UniProtKB/TrEMBL annotation, chain A:
Keyword check for Transmembrane helix: yes
Keywords: Cell membrane, Membrane, Transmembrane, Transmembrane helix
One MF annotation (Gene Ontology) recorded for this entry: branched-chain amino acid transmembrane transporter activity
Record has Protein transport as a keyword: no
Name assigned to this protein: Branched-chain amino acid ABC transporter permease
Source organism phylogeny: Bacteria, Pseudomonadati, Pseudomonadota, Alphaproteobacteria, Hyphomicrobiales
One Pfam family cited in the UniProt record for this chain: BPD_transp_2
Membrane topology: Multi-pass membrane protein
From TrEMBL, chain B:
Protein name: Branched-chain amino acid ABC transporter permease
Keyword Membrane set for record: yes
Main localisation: membrane
Subcellular localization: Cell membrane
Organism, as annotated: Bradyrhizobium zhengyangense
Membrane topology (UniProt): Multi-pass membrane protein
Residues annotated as transmembrane: 7-28, 40-57, 64-86, 98-122, 143-165, 197-219, 231-253, 259-283
TrEMBL record, chain C:
Highest taxon listed in the record's lineage: Bacteria
Name of the protein in its database record: ABC transporter ATP-binding protein
Keyword check for Signal: no
Presence of the UniProt keyword Transport in the record: yes
Residue stretches making up the ABC transporter domain: 11-246
Keyword vocabulary terms for this entry: ATP-binding, Nucleotide-binding, Transport
Purpose: Involved in beta-(1-->2)glucan export. Transmembrane domains (TMD) form a pore in the inner membrane and the ATP-binding domain (NBD) is responsible for energy generation.
One GO CC term, this protein: plasma membrane
PANTHER family for this protein: CONSERVED COMPONENT OF ABC TRANSPORTER FOR NATURAL AMINO ACIDS-RELATED
Length: 319, 293, 246
């Protein structure tokens, strides 16, 4: 266990150092624009799987949390001219509250009812924002980037690094949950809620916890997007495509292990970038949909499941 | 700005609109309400039907309602195939399958959306027919014929399906399968076959419903997202599987939408059905006419 | 009057009523379960046995009526809190955690229901000793979905035991088993009972109930129609009628 922890944190530090070096060395801005989107996908997929994967509550509301994150930033900038870290923290706080509200509202809903409720939440929030003039309403709002802080040369490079930090944070939290009693409890309630309750698992509290953590992360991940695009409008901030993409990445990667969503997001995120550039964004969405259906039908445990199968259940000896 | 006339107008339009919502929700009332299939792709099939009707109308000048009838058998077969796939890959496996089943239908909906975009583009499409574009005046209330047509067909469709489910052998088997699969098995019927047939019927109804959808207003490829709210709101409010309840719930939704539209403007309209759905799920998940707790 | 009758009851059910819509599943059921007792619960299908269990374990809310466990009113408590107080159950249709191995199934109970903070090694030891006792020692790392019917039943009991129960409710743990398997499970329950665990056993297999129980209660249509020594209850005319159907 301990050795794994050290390896993980060394990996995380190496990853962040590499990202930092990249921002200093690479002059071309395009890799950062594209890379930011991929990092954002990874972080979202990892955050999603805490509720959607471990607890088995299929959340279609990724775009609700993401959009609220974006608009938390928009509000903080318009109202107080808040700096980026404060925007992200506000996003996280609002996201946690929103997760709590979602959890309380859907406490006793299961399966499809929970999923439908999360779509409903998305549209209700989107409509509210559309009708809120202060943050631009339906037309959207322009956002001015402040001057970039050293050591970064451009704002996009800085955002790229910030999103990398968010990825590490999300992965570390997800990994911690999986290996702790929380993860075991979530897995138990995912398999059978009543049996979990009767084995002493406080299912309602764990579900709320998963909602809060997952929600806070998703909003925090969405927060820097306002500065990335320098523009926000309800139609794109709350686009249901985020929900589908995130869900697809997590399920294709496999949700049984924290690394699954990362694998899925890197694979799909890169494919998407390539397809969008070379063919069209519609074709890339089609590929995404087809992959999602193929995987849930043919490889329900995702890529992680396939790898485990290839290794012939070598993990069986462990607990 | 607010007047009684305006309100009356809104209520009349709302009732007509509601009956139309009932018609597009009928299929879901069977597939989700009776069969417990998490059919999130229902609205996507609906929009697909609209585009099929559009295609026939645009290229061969077929009347939209006739076109709707023409595609009904194809949608029936589509439904049979979809249920078979769903059953083989998810329902049979049980337990964990529900998570994947939801994702499966979500993926299907997404694929349909993108295919429509690739074929027809993102622009709105509409059909032409003699009854589209004109209105019927009743003193101060102006009722578009397209809504009246939709209302008439929707009501007929609901009655037909209700009769089918209560009077025919297969219809009664479908209702039985929702209550007690084992009993049905003992009677010598294969519950899977019955469910597959029911899913086929539920999808076939979408042929006509899709025609109504494009008669009432122009459609675009992502219209299914708005109809996730409307159809699920209606079915959940009605209480799963209650066809009569479906019509009542749909009228409630139609009137609510129409009144909010009149009082607060179109920008709030998309949220009505979703907000009602959220409220019902949180407060009374068994619906107004629910069959189980 | 025997000694056990003067003791305070472990579980006291007072005037418990449970309705589903217009249907009354339990009507003013009152009964005391004594510490260490082996208690059999019988009744025809739909008589309210499982409903009663669900009320005791907290899966169902009860409207009127109270449940006292070790002199504490547990009626408002959620199921997991009742489990932590010492009430464990198995399910009529086994409900294993399907994505987990046998060991992990038990670890859930040990992680969440165990009262004292013990180290991982200690918990592993407890788990192994429970599994050995249940005859599942060789199945530690087998996925729950790969167990046979009798093994699933045993694992359910093992998982219940891992919560350190004072009261164990076994809901038809022998349904669908062969007669030798029934004896196996019955012996297990008897050996648990000899370790100071109070057991309520719901069962349709009459020989098992007769052999196991010190006291038997028969429910019919949500009411207690007989309670007492097994032989008395079996001889009761109303019990026989309930089973034969009037």
């Amino acid at each position: 266990m301990k050795r794994n922890d050290i390896a993980f944190w060394i990996g995380a530090v190496v990853f962040l150092a590499a990202v930092l070096v990249m921002t200093q060395v690479v002059a071309n801005q395009y890799p950062f624009f594209a890379g930011y989107v991929i990092l954002q996908s990874i972080a979202l997929a990892v955050a999603w799987s805490i509720l959607g994967g471990y607890a088995g509550y299929v959340n279609f509301g990724t775009s609700a949390f993401y959009g609220v994150g974006v608009y938390a930033s928009v509000f903080m900038v318009s109202a107080f001219g808040a700096p980026l870290p404060l925007q992200i923290l506000t996003g996280a706080a609002v996201g946690a509250l929103m997760g709590l509200a979602l959890g309380l509202l859907t406490l006793r809903m299961q399966g499809i009812f929970f999923s439908i409720a999360t779509i409903a939440l998305t549209i209700v929030i989107e409509t509210t924002i559309t009708n809120w003039r202060y943050v631009g309403g339906a037309a959207g709002i322009q956002i001015q980037r402040p001057a970039v802080t050293s050591p970064f040369d451009s704002y996009v490079q800085m955002l790229f690094f910030v999103q990398a930090v968010l990825v590490v944070l999300a992965v570390a939290i997800s990994r911690y949950i999986q290996n702790s009693w929380i993860g075991r409890g979530l897995q138990a309630l995912r398999d059978d809620e009543l049996a979990a309750e009767c084995s002493g698992v406080p299912t309602l509290r764990l579900k709320l916890l998963a909602c809060v953590i997952s929600g806070a992360l998703m909003c925090a991940i969405g927060a820097p997007a306002a500065m990335y695009l320098q523009y926000a409008d309800p139609g794109s901030a709350f686009n249901l495509n985020y929900s589908v993409t995130t869900l697809a990445m997590s399920l294709i990667g496999g949700t049984a292990h924290w690394a699954g969503p990362i694998i899925g997001a890197i694979l799909l995120g890169t494919t998407q970038q390539v397809l969008t550039v070379t063919i069209s964004s519609e074709v890339n969405l089609l590929v995404l949909g087809l992959m999602l259906v193929l995987f849930v039908v043919g490889a329900p445990e995702g890529i992680v499941g396939l790898i485990n199968k290839l290794r012939g259940h070598r993990k069986e000896g462990e607990i | 700005m607010f007047s009684l006339d305006l309100l009356l107008d809104a209520v009349v339009i709302g009732v007509l609109l509601g009956c139309f919502y009932g018609a597009v929700s009928l299929g879901l009332s069977v597939s989700f309400g009776l069969l417990d299939v998490p059919h999130v792709a229902h609205p996507a099939f609906l929009v697909l039907a609209s585009y099929a009707v559009y295609f026939l109308n645009e290229n061969y000048a077929v009347d939209p309602l006739v076109a709707g009838l023409l595609i009904t058998p194809i949608f029936f077969l589509l439904g049979l195939a979809a249920y078979r796939l769903y059953y083989e890959t998810f329902e049979k496996r049980g337990s964990d399958a529900s998570v994947r089943g939801i994702a499966f239908f979500f993926g299907i909906a997404f694929i349909i959306e993108v295919l429509i975009i690739l074929q027809f583009g993102v622009d709105q499409r509409s059909v032409t027919a003699s009854y589209i574009g004109k209105a019927w005046r009743l003193s101060d209330i102006r009722v578009p014929y397209r809504l009246l047509v939709a209302f008439a067909v929707a009501t007929a469709l609901t009655m037909l399906l209700t009769l089918y489910l209560s009077r025919t052998f297969m219809g009664r088997a479908i209702r039985a399968v929702a209550q007690d699969q084992e009993a049905l098995r003992l009677m010598g019927a294969n519950p899977i076959k019955v469910k597959q047939w029911a899913f086929g019927i539920a999808t076939a109804v979408l042929g006509i419903a899709g025609a109504l959808l494009i008669i009432v207003a122009p459609v675009d490829p992502t219209l299914d997202r708005a109809y996730i709210g409307r159809t699920f709101c209606v079915v959940v409010m009605a209480g799963l599987g209650s066809l009569g309840g479906t019509l009542v719930a749909a009228i409630i939704l139609g009137v609510a939408e129409s009144i909010v539209l009149t009082l607060f403007g179109a920008s709030w309209a998309p949220a009505i059905s979703f907000a009602m759905l959220l409220g019902i799920l949180a407060v009374r998940p068994q619906g107004l006419f629910g069959r189980r707790s | 009057m025997t000694l056990s009758e003067t003791q305070a009851p472990l579980l006291r059910i007072c005037a418990l009523t449970k309705r589903f819509g217009g249907f009354t599943a339990l009507h003013r059921v009152s009964v005391d379960i004594r510490p260490g007792e082996r208690f059999g619960l019988i009744g025809p299908n739909g008589s309210g046995k499982t409903t009663l269990i669900n009320c005791i374990s907290g899966a169902f809310r009860t409207e009127p009526g109270t449940i006292l466990f070790r002199d504490e009113d547990i009626t408002p408590l959620q199921p997991h809190l009742r489990t932590r107080r010492g009430i464990a159950r198995s399910f009529q249709i086994p409900r294993p955690f399907r994505s987990m191995t046998v060991a992990e199934n038990l670890m859930v109970a040990l992680d969440f229901a165990a009262h004292e903070h013990v180290s991982v090694t200690q918990r592993r030891d407890t788990m192994m000793s429970i599994l050995d006792q249940m005859g599942l020692g060789s199945k530690v790392n087998v996925l729950a979905t790969q167990l046979s019917q009798v093994e699933l039943r045993k694992m359910e009991l093992a998982r219940a035991m891992a919560t350190h129960p004072k009261l164990l409710i076994s809901d038809e743990a022998m349904a669908g088993l062969s007669s030798s398997e029934v004896d196996e499970v019955l012996d297990l329950l008897l050996s648990l009972a000899s370790r100071d665990i109070t057991i309520i056993m719901i069962e349709h297999i009459m020989q098992a109930v007769m052999r196991f129980s010190e006291r038997v209660m028969c429910l019919d249509a949500g009411r207690i129609i007989a309670i007492g020594a097994p032989s008395e209850v079996m001889a009761d005319k109303r019990v026989q009628e309930a089973y034969l159907g009037t």
